[in-house]
Amino acid sequence: MMNNKKITVVLPAYNAAQTLQRTFDEIPQDLIDDIILTDDASKDETAKIAQKLNIYTIIHAKNKGYGANQKTCYKAALERGADVVIMLHPDYQYSPKLLRAMVSMLTSGHYDAVIASRILGKGALKGGMPLYKYIANRGLTFIQNILLNSKLSEYHTGYRGWTKEVLKALPLDRCSDDFIFDNQMLAQAINQNFSIGEISCPTKYFKEASSINLKRSTIYGLGVLKTSIEYRLHKLGLISNTLFKK
Ligand SMILES: Nc1nc2c(ncn2[C@@H]2O[C@H](COP(=O)(O)OP(=O)(O)O)[C@@H](O)[C@H]2O)c(=O)[nH]1
Ligand SMILES: [Mg+2]
Protein backbone atom coordinates (compact mmCIF):
# COMPACT_ATOMS: atom_id res chain seq x y z
CA MET A 1 0.00 0.00 0.00
CA MET A 2 1.00 3.58 -0.50
CA ASN A 3 -1.27 6.51 0.32
CA ASN A 4 -4.04 3.98 1.00
CA LYS A 5 -3.88 2.63 -2.53
CA LYS A 6 -3.73 -1.04 -3.37
CA ILE A 7 -0.59 -1.64 -5.42
CA THR A 8 -0.46 -4.50 -7.91
CA VAL A 9 2.46 -5.72 -10.00
CA VAL A 10 1.62 -7.64 -13.16
CA LEU A 11 4.16 -9.92 -14.82
CA PRO A 12 3.24 -10.79 -18.43
CA ALA A 13 5.35 -13.90 -18.88
CA TYR A 14 6.54 -15.98 -21.78
CA ASN A 15 9.36 -18.45 -21.18
CA ALA A 16 10.55 -16.62 -18.08
CA ALA A 17 11.67 -19.64 -16.04
CA GLN A 18 15.32 -18.59 -16.03
CA THR A 19 14.67 -15.07 -14.76
CA LEU A 20 11.39 -15.08 -12.80
CA GLN A 21 12.91 -15.87 -9.40
CA ARG A 22 15.56 -13.15 -9.77
CA THR A 23 12.90 -10.60 -10.76
CA PHE A 24 10.57 -11.68 -7.96
CA ASP A 25 13.30 -11.49 -5.30
CA GLU A 26 13.84 -7.79 -5.98
CA ILE A 27 10.17 -6.80 -5.74
CA PRO A 28 9.69 -4.78 -2.53
CA GLN A 29 7.16 -7.01 -0.76
CA ASP A 30 6.31 -4.41 1.89
CA LEU A 31 4.99 -2.09 -0.82
CA ILE A 32 3.22 -4.50 -3.16
CA ASP A 33 -0.20 -5.90 -2.23
CA ASP A 34 -0.76 -8.24 -5.14
CA ILE A 35 1.44 -9.91 -7.76
CA ILE A 36 -0.17 -11.46 -10.83
CA LEU A 37 1.61 -13.48 -13.47
CA THR A 38 -0.04 -14.39 -16.73
CA ASP A 39 1.67 -17.23 -18.51
CA ASP A 40 1.13 -17.10 -22.25
CA ALA A 41 1.49 -20.86 -22.73
CA SER A 42 5.22 -20.86 -22.07
CA LYS A 43 7.20 -23.86 -23.21
CA ASP A 44 9.22 -23.92 -19.99
CA GLU A 45 8.47 -24.12 -16.26
CA THR A 46 7.35 -20.49 -15.87
CA ALA A 47 3.90 -21.27 -14.43
CA LYS A 48 5.22 -23.92 -12.08
CA ILE A 49 7.84 -21.57 -10.67
CA ALA A 50 5.28 -18.78 -10.30
CA GLN A 51 2.95 -21.01 -8.33
CA LYS A 52 5.84 -22.15 -6.15
CA LEU A 53 6.54 -18.50 -5.37
CA ASN A 54 2.91 -18.08 -4.39
CA ILE A 55 2.23 -15.67 -7.21
CA TYR A 56 -1.40 -15.53 -8.40
CA THR A 57 -1.00 -17.22 -11.80
CA ILE A 58 -3.23 -17.25 -14.84
CA ILE A 59 -2.33 -19.61 -17.64
CA HIS A 60 -3.39 -19.16 -21.27
CA ALA A 61 -4.35 -22.48 -22.82
CA LYS A 62 -2.56 -21.41 -26.00
CA ASN A 63 -0.10 -18.70 -26.97
CA LYS A 64 -2.01 -15.48 -27.65
CA GLY A 65 0.75 -12.89 -27.89
CA TYR A 66 2.35 -10.16 -25.78
CA GLY A 67 -0.56 -7.73 -26.11
CA ALA A 68 -3.17 -10.37 -25.32
CA ASN A 69 -1.15 -11.35 -22.28
CA GLN A 70 -1.25 -7.79 -21.00
CA LYS A 71 -5.00 -7.59 -21.56
CA THR A 72 -5.36 -10.60 -19.26
CA CYS A 73 -3.02 -9.00 -16.68
CA TYR A 74 -4.85 -5.70 -16.47
CA LYS A 75 -8.29 -7.28 -16.40
CA ALA A 76 -7.28 -9.53 -13.51
CA ALA A 77 -5.62 -6.67 -11.64
CA LEU A 78 -8.79 -4.58 -11.78
CA GLU A 79 -10.99 -7.53 -10.82
CA ARG A 80 -8.77 -8.08 -7.78
CA GLY A 81 -9.21 -4.46 -6.68
CA ALA A 82 -5.98 -2.74 -7.77
CA ASP A 83 -5.72 1.04 -7.50
CA VAL A 84 -2.29 1.25 -9.13
CA VAL A 85 -0.87 -1.34 -11.53
CA ILE A 86 2.75 -1.63 -12.62
CA MET A 87 3.75 -3.91 -15.46
CA LEU A 88 7.15 -5.48 -14.94
CA HIS A 89 8.67 -7.91 -17.43
CA PRO A 90 9.72 -11.08 -15.64
CA ASP A 91 12.81 -11.32 -17.86
CA TYR A 92 14.92 -9.33 -15.35
CA GLN A 93 15.55 -6.61 -17.89
CA TYR A 94 14.20 -3.75 -15.79
CA SER A 95 14.97 -3.06 -12.14
CA PRO A 96 12.16 -3.98 -9.69
CA LYS A 97 13.96 -1.74 -7.20
CA LEU A 98 12.43 1.24 -8.99
CA LEU A 99 8.86 0.11 -8.27
CA ARG A 100 8.80 2.36 -5.22
CA ALA A 101 9.67 5.41 -7.30
CA MET A 102 7.00 4.60 -9.88
CA VAL A 103 4.32 3.88 -7.28
CA SER A 104 5.24 7.10 -5.53
CA MET A 105 4.59 9.09 -8.68
CA LEU A 106 1.33 7.27 -9.38
CA THR A 107 -0.02 7.80 -5.86
CA SER A 108 1.09 11.44 -5.68
CA GLY A 109 -1.94 12.61 -7.61
CA HIS A 110 0.29 14.25 -10.21
CA TYR A 111 0.48 11.42 -12.73
CA ASP A 112 -1.97 8.97 -14.26
CA ALA A 113 0.76 6.91 -15.89
CA VAL A 114 4.50 6.49 -15.45
CA ILE A 115 7.04 4.99 -17.79
CA ALA A 116 10.57 3.96 -16.82
CA SER A 117 12.80 5.35 -19.53
CA ARG A 118 16.07 3.78 -20.61
CA ILE A 119 16.86 6.86 -22.66
CA LEU A 120 16.74 9.38 -19.81
CA GLY A 121 20.13 9.02 -18.17
CA LYS A 122 22.00 6.89 -20.74
CA GLY A 123 20.70 3.55 -19.41
CA ALA A 124 20.11 2.05 -22.85
CA LEU A 125 23.51 1.74 -24.49
CA LYS A 126 25.24 1.16 -21.17
CA GLY A 127 22.89 -1.76 -20.54
CA GLY A 128 23.74 -3.28 -23.90
CA MET A 129 20.82 -2.22 -26.07
CA PRO A 130 21.85 -3.10 -29.65
CA LEU A 131 22.85 0.01 -31.60
CA TYR A 132 20.18 -0.54 -34.26
CA LYS A 133 17.47 -0.68 -31.58
CA TYR A 134 18.86 2.48 -29.98
CA ILE A 135 18.88 4.38 -33.27
CA ALA A 136 15.37 3.16 -34.14
CA ASN A 137 14.15 4.11 -30.65
CA ARG A 138 15.53 7.64 -30.97
CA GLY A 139 14.19 8.10 -34.50
CA LEU A 140 10.72 6.75 -33.74
CA THR A 141 10.53 8.77 -30.52
CA PHE A 142 11.41 11.96 -32.43
CA ILE A 143 8.63 11.31 -34.95
CA GLN A 144 6.12 10.30 -32.27
CA ASN A 145 6.73 13.39 -30.18
CA ILE A 146 5.77 15.48 -33.20
CA LEU A 147 2.77 13.40 -34.31
CA LEU A 148 1.42 12.83 -30.79
CA ASN A 149 2.28 16.38 -29.70
CA SER A 150 4.04 15.05 -26.61
CA LYS A 151 7.45 15.20 -25.01
CA LEU A 152 8.55 11.77 -23.87
CA SER A 153 12.14 10.51 -23.92
CA GLU A 154 10.96 7.17 -25.32
CA TYR A 155 7.77 5.25 -26.14
CA HIS A 156 9.27 1.77 -26.21
CA THR A 157 10.11 0.75 -22.69
CA GLY A 158 8.35 -2.32 -21.30
CA TYR A 159 8.26 -0.93 -17.76
CA ARG A 160 5.06 1.05 -17.22
CA GLY A 161 2.57 1.90 -14.52
CA TRP A 162 -1.05 3.03 -14.60
CA THR A 163 -3.73 4.15 -12.21
CA LYS A 164 -6.95 2.16 -12.27
CA GLU A 165 -8.69 5.18 -13.79
CA VAL A 166 -6.51 4.87 -16.90
CA LEU A 167 -7.01 1.13 -17.16
CA LYS A 168 -10.77 1.52 -16.92
CA ALA A 169 -10.91 4.37 -19.42
CA LEU A 170 -8.81 2.96 -22.25
CA PRO A 171 -10.47 0.63 -24.78
CA LEU A 172 -7.65 -1.91 -24.56
CA ASP A 173 -9.70 -4.61 -26.26
CA ARG A 174 -9.25 -2.62 -29.49
CA CYS A 175 -5.45 -2.81 -29.25
CA SER A 176 -3.37 -5.49 -30.94
CA ASP A 177 -2.58 -8.83 -29.34
CA ASP A 178 1.03 -8.47 -30.53
CA PHE A 179 3.98 -6.26 -29.46
CA ILE A 180 2.47 -3.08 -30.90
CA PHE A 181 -0.02 -3.21 -28.02
CA ASP A 182 2.38 -1.17 -25.84
CA ASN A 183 2.57 1.64 -28.34
CA GLN A 184 -1.14 1.71 -29.03
CA MET A 185 -1.95 1.81 -25.32
CA LEU A 186 0.36 4.78 -24.77
CA ALA A 187 -1.18 6.58 -27.75
CA GLN A 188 -4.65 5.93 -26.31
CA ALA A 189 -3.55 7.41 -22.96
CA ILE A 190 -2.23 10.51 -24.73
CA ASN A 191 -5.44 10.73 -26.75
CA GLN A 192 -7.43 10.83 -23.52
CA ASN A 193 -5.12 13.51 -22.07
CA PHE A 194 -3.85 11.43 -19.17
CA SER A 195 -0.68 12.86 -17.67
CA ILE A 196 2.37 10.69 -18.20
CA GLY A 197 5.47 10.96 -16.01
CA GLU A 198 8.89 9.42 -16.56
CA ILE A 199 11.68 8.12 -14.39
CA SER A 200 15.11 7.04 -15.59
CA CYS A 201 15.83 3.34 -15.47
CA PRO A 202 18.81 1.13 -16.22
CA THR A 203 18.27 -1.83 -18.51
CA LYS A 204 20.04 -5.10 -19.03
CA TYR A 205 20.30 -6.89 -22.36
CA PHE A 206 21.24 -10.56 -22.10
CA LYS A 207 20.08 -13.71 -23.86
CA GLU A 208 17.04 -14.48 -21.70
CA ALA A 209 15.95 -10.82 -21.56
CA SER A 210 15.77 -10.14 -25.25
CA SER A 211 14.42 -12.38 -27.95
CA ILE A 212 13.02 -9.91 -30.43
CA ASN A 213 14.99 -10.10 -33.65
CA LEU A 214 15.46 -7.62 -36.48
CA LYS A 215 12.41 -8.86 -38.40
CA ARG A 216 10.02 -8.53 -35.44
CA SER A 217 11.58 -5.19 -34.49
CA THR A 218 10.97 -3.92 -38.03
CA ILE A 219 7.33 -5.01 -37.93
CA TYR A 220 7.02 -3.24 -34.57
CA GLY A 221 8.67 -0.08 -35.91
CA LEU A 222 6.31 0.08 -38.89
CA GLY A 223 3.39 -0.45 -36.51
CA VAL A 224 4.59 2.48 -34.42
CA LEU A 225 4.63 4.74 -37.47
CA LYS A 226 1.16 3.54 -38.50
CA THR A 227 -0.27 4.14 -35.01
CA SER A 228 1.22 7.64 -34.81
CA ILE A 229 0.01 8.66 -38.26
CA GLU A 230 -3.46 7.29 -37.52
CA TYR A 231 -3.49 9.24 -34.27
CA ARG A 232 -2.66 12.52 -36.04
CA LEU A 233 -5.19 11.94 -38.83
CA HIS A 234 -7.83 11.04 -36.24
CA LYS A 235 -7.08 14.21 -34.29
CA LEU A 236 -7.35 16.26 -37.47
CA GLY A 237 -10.77 14.71 -38.08
CA LEU A 238 -9.63 13.20 -41.37
CA ILE A 239 -10.25 9.60 -40.31
CA SER A 240 -12.11 7.87 -37.53
CA ASN A 241 -9.77 5.31 -36.02
CA THR A 242 -11.12 2.55 -33.84
CA LEU A 243 -8.20 2.81 -31.38
CA PHE A 244 -9.06 6.37 -30.53
CA LYS A 245 -12.78 6.74 -31.01
CA LYS A 246 -14.99 7.16 -27.98
N1 LIG B 1 2.89 -13.28 -24.44
C1 LIG B 1 3.99 -13.34 -25.14
N2 LIG B 1 5.02 -12.60 -24.75
C2 LIG B 1 6.14 -12.68 -25.46
C3 LIG B 1 6.28 -13.50 -26.59
N3 LIG B 1 7.54 -13.31 -27.06
C4 LIG B 1 8.16 -12.44 -26.23
N4 LIG B 1 7.32 -12.06 -25.25
C5 LIG B 1 7.53 -11.14 -24.13
O1 LIG B 1 7.60 -9.84 -24.62
C6 LIG B 1 8.48 -9.08 -23.84
C7 LIG B 1 9.48 -8.40 -24.74
O2 LIG B 1 10.23 -9.38 -25.40
P1 LIG B 1 11.79 -9.41 -25.27
O3 LIG B 1 12.28 -10.62 -25.97
O4 LIG B 1 12.16 -9.28 -23.84
O5 LIG B 1 12.18 -8.12 -26.09
P2 LIG B 1 13.21 -6.95 -25.84
O6 LIG B 1 13.54 -6.97 -24.40
O7 LIG B 1 12.49 -5.73 -26.26
O8 LIG B 1 14.37 -7.24 -26.71
C8 LIG B 1 9.12 -10.01 -22.83
O9 LIG B 1 8.49 -9.83 -21.58
C9 LIG B 1 8.83 -11.38 -23.40
O10 LIG B 1 8.64 -12.35 -22.40
C10 LIG B 1 5.14 -14.27 -26.99
O11 LIG B 1 5.13 -15.01 -27.96
N5 LIG B 1 4.04 -14.16 -26.22
MG1 LIG C 1 13.07 -8.07 -22.61
Layout of SSEs?
Blueprint: E1 7-13, H1 20-25, E2 34-39, H2 46-52, E3 56-59, H3 66-79, E4 84-87, H4 99-107, E5 113-117, H5 123-126, H6 131-147, E6 160-163, H7 164-169, H8 181-191, E7 196-200, H9 214-235
Helix pairs in contact: 6-9, 8-9
The chain binds guanosine-5'-diphosphate and magnesium ion.
Question: How would you explain this protein's 3D organization?
Answer:
By secondary structure, the protein is an alpha/beta fold. The protein contains nine helices and seven strands. It has a seven-stranded mixed β-sheet, sandwiched between helices. The model has no long low-confidence stretch (mean pLDDT 97). The structure holds guanosine-5'-diphosphate (GDP) and magnesium ion.
Concise account of the structure shown:
The protein has 246 residues and is α/β, with parallel strands linked by helices. It contains nine helices and seven strands. The protein is globular.
Q: Any low-confidence stretches, pLDDT <50, length ≥5?
A: none
Number of helices: 9
**Overall CATH class:** Alpha Beta
CATH homologous superfamily? Spore Coat Polysaccharide Biosynthesis Protein SpsA, Chain A
What oligomerization state is this entry in?
single chain
Q: Distance N terminus to C terminus?
A: 33 Å
Query: Helix and strand succession?
Result: EHEHEHEHEHHEHHEH
Helix content: 25-40%
Specify the structural class. alpha/beta
Number of strands: 7
Question: Which fold name corresponds to the CATH topology?
Answer: Spore Coat Polysaccharide Biosynthesis Protein SpsA, Chain A
Which cofactor or ligand species appear? guanosine-5'-diphosphate, magnesium ion
